[in-house]
Amino acid sequence: MGQEVAALEVRELVKRFGSVTAVDRLSFAVPRGCVTGFLGPNGAGKTTTMRVLLGLARPSEGASSVLGVPYEKLERPVERVGAALEVTGFHPGRTARNHLRIAALQGRVDAGRVDAVLAATGLGEYADRRVGGSSSGMRQRLALATAMLGEPEVLVLDEPANGLDPAGVAWLRQFLRAFAARGGSVLISSHILAEVAEVADRVVVIDRGALVTEGSVDVITAAGGEAVVVRSPEPGRLRAVLEGAGAVVRDDEEGALLVTGLPIERVGEVAAAEGLVLHELRRRTSSLEDAFLRLTGEPLP
């Protein structure tokens, strides 16, 4: 049997803007039926890569494909891939319903899909409000509703959680997981790394236009290992005895110490041997945020 065609793929992709190389020999694939997080610091080349994938920018070198072919060769692309790269393209005087009606007409999509996507994205009660008076969260939902008009197999979303309140972020997570569970594929760029960890099956991390790593969220976070969070009313003495036992100790939030190099049992034993009182002792596994910082060596945007 032949290998299944990826939902999205870039191969040795290069994109230059004059003397600036925004994407540098980038290769990765987005499998079908899963959510893939696309991560990188500001200016890493994420949006540029997405634009190339969607035929909105021409590569300087290399190639990209959607469902096995370049975007421009897709038949009825609105039914194959939906995209939401920005939330600034709405006419402020139009209602959400009318915006979707026009988009459906332009995409030659059955007008019956308008009510379906309004309901699916939680916009039903806001359908007849003008977009200019809508919140940024409502505009994010409208962008997603527009992307869903053609019942696509693939979604490409750039920062879709921006402007959403906590309930909206939770809703987006459930929406994307359900889409993937039905066999859909998602490429999602986001700076909300805790949320990416909740929704994504795998991640692609880039920096300065080049691939840093890709793989499952579990594998990438596990590579950071485990640390021990410990808190004592005598942090200076605790630090000294732990370092004397071979641990690496650094300050954590709110006065706690973050210990690596010793298992949690040994940390407790060392403290007990010195008669040190502990107010907290727990394991902390590496998070996606920890992995991101370790891999890119840059602060979060």
Give an account of the 3D structure.
The protein is an alpha/beta fold and 301 residues long. It has two domains: 8-221, P-loop containing nucleotide triphosphate hydrolases (Rossmann fold), CATH 3.40.50; 226-285, Alpha-Beta Plaits (2-Layer Sandwich). The chain is 32% helix and 26% strand. It contains ten helices and 13 strands. The chain has a six-stranded mixed β-sheet, with helices on both faces. Helix 2 (96-106) crosses helix 3 (113-120). The mean pLDDT is 92.
* CATH topology (level 3) name of the largest domain: Rossmann fold
Assign the CATH class of the largest domain: Alpha Beta
The string of secondary-structure elements, in order, is EEEHEEHHHEHEHEEHEHEEHEH
Helix/strand structural class? alpha/beta
Computed over alpha carbons, the radius of gyration is 23 Å
Low-confidence stretches: none
How far apart are the first and last residues' alpha carbons, in Å?
A: 44 Å
- The CATH superfamily title of the largest domain: P-loop containing nucleotide triphosphate hydrolases
With helices defined by DSSP (H or I, 4 residues minimum), what is the helix count? 10
Helix content: 25-40%
Number of strands: 13
Mean pLDDT comes to 92
Can you tell me the CATH architecture of the largest domain? 3-Layer(aba) Sandwich
Give the overall form.
elongated
Major beta sheet, strand line-up:
5-6-7-3-8-9
Strand content: 25-35%
The largest pleated sheet is described as:
6 strands, mixed
Domain module tally: 2
Features of the shown structure:
Alpha-Beta Plaits; 301 residues; six-stranded mixed sheet; single chain; Rossmann fold; alpha/beta
